[in-house]
Amino acid sequence: MRSSNPVLNVGTMDAFRGEYFPVSQSMTIQGTATKALILLGLCFGTGTMTFAMTHSGNSAAAFPWLIAGFAGSLIFSIATSFKPNWAPVTAPLYALAEGLLLGAISGMYEGMFSGIVPQAALATLGTLGAMLFAYKTGLIRASRSFMLGVTAATGGIALMYMVAMVCSLFGIRLPFLYQPTLLGIGMCAAIVVVAALNLILDFNSIQQAAQQGAPKYYEWYSAFGLMVTIVWLYIEVLRLLSLIAMYSRDE
């Protein structure tokens, strides 16, 4: 089963496929869950610093940390993706850097829309819990057709964002992505749904890796991959709530 998450892709298991690892040196689902909580805790810890700076109006002080967070998260995510065995070191570093970036972004949104960050955080955690429940109970199954549909939708979203980025270089903004209209809200809501469904594929990839006896370091790598999806989901939920708030204010 191939995940649309480029991190939790079956191809990353090729490095150890066919090897045998003792139980004490093998990945477990519980171990992965623990590592994921550690990464989220590290992200939250550094995020509170840049959030406080940005939300209090001290954006100038937060800006260097934002840049450092962006650069660090990019570097450590690439390093972890290409060298999964480095994950016990690079995944926590990624989480720390990502926290700096997300904290600053969250502070900006909170400054514009009071109370939006707690709402987005709770909605993200609630969605994570709901998707985990749906996966564990079989309400949503990671079938081949489901995987193909989510992967295609995710690829389409990535392509759309690339087009939007290129257009922005020429001063063109795509209204259906950024404007607080019913179309913009509907498009953002659809992206949130796709991001949430990617969690199902992530859970399935983690379960398969554990069943195939992946090495212990893959717990960190899988936790990192899961966090990538959670971060994407949180940002999209934050953007959706902001569009709804602007639309309500304009009415």
Give the DSSP E fraction (strand runs of 2 or more residues): under 5%
Helix content: over 70%
Number of strands: 0
- Rounded average pLDDT: 88
The backbone outline, from C-alpha atoms, is: globular
Largest sheet: none
In sequence order, what are the helices and strands, one letter per element?
A: HHHHHHHH
Q: Tell me the radius of gyration.
A: 19 Å
Count the domains.
1
How would you describe the overall organization of this protein?
With 251 residues, the chain is mostly helical. The protein has one domain. Helix content is 76%, strand content 0%. α1 runs antiparallel to α2, α2 packs antiparallel against α3 (87-112) and α7 (182-211) runs antiparallel to α8 (218-250). The longest helix has 33 residues, at 218-250. It is globular, with a radius of gyration of 19 Å. The N and C termini lie far apart (46 Å). The model has no long low-confidence stretch (mean pLDDT 88).
Question: In brief, what are we looking at here?
Answer:
This protein has 251 residues and is mainly alpha-helical. Helix content is 76%, strand content 0%.
List the helices and strands and how they pair.
Layout lengths: L28 H27 L3 H24 L4 H26 L3 H22 L6 H26 L5 H4 L3 H30 L6 H33 L1
Question: What descriptive keywords fit this protein?
Answer:
8 helices; 0% strand; single chain; 251 residues; mainly alpha
